[in-house]
Write a structure and sequence with these properties.
This protein is of the alpha/beta class. It contains 10 helices and 14 strands. Bound molecules: adenosine-5'-diphosphate (ADP) and magnesium ion.
């Protein structure tokens, strides 16, 4: 395993309540490492605690307990070096509307104490394809352009780690692709990228490793391929010749669901049985099969399975 770019240990965050609001335990002791050089996905539904975790790394939220090391530097005892080694694009877009993209990057360079000669504003504008917007006011940029500018801003001090909190929430397909390309380009240059998302497809497409967080707890942390293959499940969709009343049942069916008047989906384990045996069971129980299709479990199936197990334990 590669060195850890980020080490998170037993991270706890409790938000104080206010008025009628009780205190909220947003992170319940989360531990994981982000391997150096990876594109790492932090996946979870809304309210899972993703932004809380990112904002603790960014120094925007104070943790209640636990430890965070960025590039080997503890955020409590070596705050300065921790900060120098990470660039963070928060979920909320905030800008001074009267600065131009070039000025935004120059100001940020100044903030990090980078001398004018060493600033990379032009190069960064090119990298995020905003060179032609160099002198436009930030308020005239589209949402997608603003997000790209924020990525450039986070890279001003050339940190080895870039963290993106929901970079593609609410953006169109075209822009999503552009952002994915940008992430891949940066990673190819050696930048470790952490991104949070609630889009499973995005995590599956971009990330080598995925941690899943739900209700402030880490419920999985695995290479994407392993996670997808984890269940070893296969799903067969069966269309029958008449409306379905009672569904067929068999101990080898992990799940059998009606998904249309005449369509059912049966989930089974590839190691236990085969699609042929599943179909034979369906026929034996009186159904006449019109059509069949099969698919492997994807990340969405795994996610639903993992999060429902988690809910059942609570
Ligand atoms: P995510 O980014 O995964 O959607 P968040 O980290 O934003 O999740 O939120 C995790 C939980 O903490 C949610 O229940 C949210 O309501 C709560 N929370 C987030 N920020 C605050 C805050 N400033 N004060 C109180 N509760 C908060
Ligand atoms: Mg969030």
């Amino acid at each position: 395993m590669a060195e850890a770019a980020i080490e998170i240990r037993d991270l706890v965050k409790e938000y104080a309540g206010s008025g009628d609001e009780p205190p909220k335990l947003a992170l319940k002791g989360v531990s994981f490492d982000v391997p150096e050089g990876s594109v790492f996905g932090l996946l979870g539904p809304n309210g899972a605690g993703k932004s809380t975790l990112i904002n603790i790394m960014a120094g925007l939220v104070n943790k209640t307990g636990g430890q965070v090391k960025i590039w080997g530097h503890d955020i409590d005892t070596d705050h300065r070096n921790a900060k120098l080694n990470i660039g963070i694009v928060p979920q909320e877009i905030v800008f001074d509307p009267f600065f131009t993209p070039f000025e935004v990057l120059e100001n940020q360079g100044g903030f990090y104490g980078i001398s004018k000669a060493l600033r990379r504003s032009e190069e960064l504008l090119k990298a995020v394809r905003l060179a032609d917007k160099r002198n436009a006011y930030a308020r005239t940029l589209s949402g997608g352009m603003k997000r790209r500018l924020l990525i450039a801003k986070a890279m001003v001090h050339s940190p080895p780690i870039l963290v993106l909190d929901e970079p593609t929430a609410g953006v169109d397909v075209e822009l999503r692709k552009q952002l994915w390309d940008l992430v891949n380009d940066l990673n190819a240059e050696g930048v470790t990228v952490v991104l949070t998302t609630h889009y499973l497809e995005e995590a599956e497409e971009l990330c080598e490793q995925i941690a899943i967080i739900n209700h402030g707890e880490l419920i999985a942390n695995k290479p994407t391929r392993e996670l997808v293959g984890m269940m070893g499940e296969k799903i067969v969709a069966v269309t029958v010749d008449a409306d379905i009343g009672d569904l067929p049942s068999d101990p080898r069916f992990h799940k059998c669901e009606k998904v249309g008047d005449r369509v059912m989906e049966i989930t089974f384990d590839k190691g236990e049985t085969t699609a042929g045996q599943v179909l034979a069971q369906v026929q034996e129980q009186g159904f006449v099969i019109d059509d069949v299709s099969t698919r492997e479990a994807d990340l969405e199936d795994v996610f639903v399975q993992l999060t429902s197990q988690d809910d059942a334990q609570q």
